[in-house]
Amino acid sequence: MAQYDVVIIGAGPGGYNAAIRAGQLGMSVAIIEGAPTLGGTCLNVGCMPSKALLHASEMFEQANKEFAHLGIEVSPRLNLKQMLAQKAESVTALTKGVEFLMKKNKVDWIKGWGSITGPGKVAVKGADGAVQTLEAKNIVIATGSEPAALPGVTVDNKRILDSTGALSLPEVPGSMIVIGAGIIGLELGSVWRRLGAQVTVVEFLDRITPGMDEEVAKTFQRSLTKQGMTFKLGSKVTGAKATAKSVEVTVEPVKGGSAETLKADYVLLAIGRRPYTTGLGLESVGIVPDKRGVIANDHGKTSAPGVWVIGDVTTGVMLAHKAEEEGVAVIELIAGKAGHVNYGLIPSVVYTSPEVAWVGKTEEELKAAGIVYKSGKFPFSANSRAKINHETEGFVKVLADAKTDRILGVHMIGPQVGEMVGEYCVAMEFSAASEDVARTCHPHPTRSEALRQAAMGVEGWTMQA
To answer: How many CB atoms sit inside 10 A of residue 307's CB?
Structure first.
């Protein structure tokens, strides 16, 4: 029986980063993954392939709509087969990179599907059906999540798609219905809209992107509507019936009223994700997930001694970088170090065009908590670089404590804001005041100047708008 300091079940961003850190700290470590490649949902059928298509589709739309204004005359033609091929090439390069990192850090990849069989024991069933048992001083559950289901809507990944199926369509739909106005649905809906589909988004709530600052969400919806997306908010999907060439979706108003039938070439079900705990053998160590399948934790520890949990399968936002933080923290706690995750400073990004990014509290959260705050706001329409690049849509908003000036939240919609929100993550990690950012020199002309100007606005001395 092979023995390890740490055995990690699942090789997504949480799992493989935990494995790397364990290897760096000199532990013997094995990572269990039954998929043909490492990287989990994120690298294989999530974050990475979707960003590859978002980038390619954005370039295609720019070539069609913006190049002529810049004095570049082209006649773009879509080669969907090649667009999907380059996506696959990128994914392969990334997963091979993770495999290299496992070898570099002396991590054993045990190929198969893992389940806990008792304290300190993990059985791994290989593709050939053979089972081997590993002995572990510590077990880390990092099994991630899977697309959530909706009664009456059966995913076949032919006409009714989940996020995985929507990454590999053989044709550009003439029309697509997206069920769910969250990040995944809007990103993938954006891809196919840019490539030529008529996209209708059906959302149960009366707003898009729950959790996003309300002012930003409204601006975001206006932008997507202007681009050609149609929204049906406050609407409940009660069923979807697929034929060989189309899908009929039954929709009812949440507040009551007559049902209607919508028809489209394809339907994308994107109402969120649920923790993946199937076949993990949790009962063998007394772990009981909640009704949603979430495994509770206390600083990464489960209720079972020596068993830890990270990522989508436990509490908190389902984001790859959150899982990475938890993976590192748990390994450092195992090693006797001060592992820690600041859950108040996990940034979020929507990789549409314009992008949306935020970190910290929203205005709604601050109001609900009775916290008195000040805000500063700066539009990209007043930013020199954004003007030159013809990308002036959006703004940056900084929320700071009215008494201490400590930054409490930052919300951005605009060009490449996903790359810029990290500045405020660092500032807030060090408990910076808005004045700290306002008095920090930023290079000119850059979009990042909008971050400084918004901070200036907290105290009312924005200079360029």
So the answer is: 24
Looking at the structure, tell me whether residues 420 and 324 fall in a common domain: no
What's the confidence (pLDDT) of residue 88?
Answer: 98
Question: Is residue 195 a part of any domain in this protein?
Answer: yes
3-state secondary structure of 5: strand
As for how many domains the chain has, the answer is 3
Do 358 and 335 fall within a single domain?
no
pTM, two decimals, is 0.97
Whats the size of the chain, residue-wise?
A: 465
Distance CA 465, CA 458 (A): 13
According to DSSP, the residues that pair with 401 across neighbouring strands are 373
Q: Tokens 């009775």 — which residue?
A: 370
Q: Is residue 317 part of a domain?
A: yes
Q: Give 153-162 pLDDT, tens digit per residue.
A: 999 999 999 9
Residue span of the structural domain in which 262 resides: 160-271
Q: Is 382 helix (H, G, I), strand (E, B) or coil?
A: helix
- Cα angle for residues 365, 367, 369 (degrees, 5° grid): 70
Phi, psi of 208 (to 5 degrees): -95, 165
First CA to last CA distance, the chain:
68
The CATH number given to whatever domain includes residue 425 is 3.30.390.30
* DSSP summary character for residue 166: G
- Give the helix ranges, DSSP H, for 281-404: 320-334, 363-368, 384-388
Query: CB count, 10 Å around CB of 152?
Result: 12
Q: For position 323, what pLDDT does the model report? A: 98
Asked if the structure places residue 153 within a domain, the reply is no
What's the CA gap between 146 and 141, in Å, rounded?
15
User: Alpha-carbon distance 193 to 185, whole Å?
Assistant: 12
| 358 closest CA partner among 290, 255, 454, 289 | 454
The three-point CA angle 18-23-24 to 5° equals 100
pLDDT of residue 423: 98
Low-confidence ranges of the chain (pLDDT < 50): none
CA distance linking residue 383 with residue 378, whole number of Å: 9
Give the pLDDT of residue 1.
84
Which H or E element spans position 14? Answer: helix 13-24
Annotated active-site residue 69? The verdict is no
Residue 349 forms part of a structural domain: no
Using CA atoms, how far apart are residues 458 and 152, in angstroms rounded to an integer?
49
Q: Helix crossing, 13-24 with 80-104: angle to 10°? A: 30
